[in-house]
Amino acid sequence: MSWPVAELDAVRRLEVLAAAVPGAFFAESVVDAPFDVVWAVAADLEGELPRLLRNVRSVRILSSEGERVVADITGTFPLRERFDVVLRPGWCVMQSTRVVGGMAAVPDGERTRFAFLGALRGPGTRTAAPLLRRVGRPLGRGMLDRLRERVG
Question: For the domain 29-151, what is the CATH code?
Fold first, then answer.
């Protein structure tokens, strides 16, 4: 007997990932711009990610092979980490030893459903998960607001 499998779009997959990572926050919104325009901004990690995330000062791509990217990200807090990134149309997941981040987008007619996740990794994150989610939600909403400004 075979079971029907529901296909999850990229935004739903990112939401599932956020639910599985302790302390991750997840923010989702609809952006009044076509998918291609929204994803062009989101996928420009070096040029746009520092504009979208206030705690990121710079992103430098160290290598790129297909959808696999290695990036050096410097933050406003004492953060300088090398991130392994999977970047393809509508999907970006970045992880280092201390941080997990992600973005996903799917077309919604002439608009785009867009989502963002962020999480810290390390000792104590499971215990601090409720606090991290509360603190992270406004960060996610701010990122979505800045994305709307960038594509508008």
Answer: 3.30.530.20
